[in-house]
């Protein structure tokens, strides 16, 4: 009962901090986000621990590492000098998610390769002329997140798939916002889809652990 209350309180806390972060974006006060954005992933990580312990689930080290690396990426991207460290942090985070998805995969989904490749090729084709010296890093990142999306499908978890799709949307809009045309509207879309993506992934991981425990 107490743990259930704690989960609800954490979701309320996340909603409040997230709302402040979105307001700071909307009123174009980037410096104020030093007070909000760095809190989002720690709350989500805390939520993951609390939600897992409620049913005595094992904390998955690969997934947890992905969340921690995402937190580092969030912090780096708050600074002008932090784009490359942030990109690297999120690249490693996606690799951690890929490893986790690969370990829990249920089936091969070769038919989805065409769909994922279509997204990747279309995205790279559109944004490539705007990348200048960032061509190689962004292409590598695009391949990595596409791989993450593919392996999320192989888990047969709807929540993990939704989380991965939201992550792809968030990163795609982020790239367009940074390299093609910046607008506050796109920045809001980036954060909304990003936070929802991480939350869906947490819910998906806990759901998978619960089902595996029941099967065992």
Description:
The longest helix is centred in the C-terminal third of the chain and has 32 residues, at 184-215. The chain is built from eight helices and no strands. It is mainly alpha-helical and 216 residues long. The protein is globular and about 50 Å long.
Structure characteristics:
single chain, 8 helices, mainly alpha, 79% helix, globular, 216 residues
Question: What does the secondary structure layout of this molecule look like, with pairings?
Answer:
Blueprint: H1 2-26, H2 37-54, H3 61-76, H4 83-104, H5 113-127, H6 135-154, H7 158-179, H8 184-215
Brief summary of the model shown:
The protein is 79% helix and 0% strand. The protein has helices at residues 2-26, 37-54, 61-76, 83-104, 113-127, 135-154, 158-179, 184-215.
Please tally the β strands and state the result.
0
Which quaternary structure do these chains form? Answer: single chain
Low-confidence stretches: none
Average of pLDDT:
92
Q: Tell me the helix content.
A: over 70%
Sum up the overall morphology in one term: globular
Q: What proportion of the residues form beta strands (DSSP E)?
A: under 5%
Class computed from helices, strands and strand pairing: mainly alpha
Number of helices: 8
CA distance, first residue to last residue = 26 Å
Radius of gyration: 17 Å
The profile of the biggest β sheet is: none
SSE order:
HHHHHHHH
């Amino acid at each position: 009962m107490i743990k259930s209350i704690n989960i609800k309180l954490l979701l309320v806390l996340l909603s409040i901090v997230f709302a402040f972060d979105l307001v700071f974006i909307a009123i174009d006060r980037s410096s104020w986000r030093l007070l909000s954005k760095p809190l989002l992933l720690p709350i989500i990580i805390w939520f993951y621990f609390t939600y897992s312990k409620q049913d005595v689930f094992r904390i998955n080290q690969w997934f947890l590492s992905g969340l921690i690396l995402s937190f580092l990426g969030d912090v780096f991207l708050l600074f002008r000098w932090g784009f490359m460290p942030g990109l690297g942090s999120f690249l490693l985070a996606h690799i951690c998610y890929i490893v986790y998805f690969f370990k829990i995969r249920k089936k091969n989904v070769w038919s989805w390769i065409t769909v994922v490749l279509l997204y990747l090729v279309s995205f790279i084709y559109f944004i490539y002329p705007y990348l200048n010296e960032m061509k190689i890093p962004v292409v590598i990142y695009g391949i990595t997140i596409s791989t993450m999306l593919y392996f999320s499908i192989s888990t047969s978890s709807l929540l993990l798939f939704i989380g991965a799709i939201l992550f792809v949307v968030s990163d795609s809009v982020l790239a367009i916002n940074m390299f093609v045309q910046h607008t506050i509207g796109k920045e809001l879309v980036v954060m909304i889809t990003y936070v929802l993506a991480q939350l869906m992934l947490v819910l998906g991981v806990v759901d998978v652990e619960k089902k595996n425990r029941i099967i065992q």
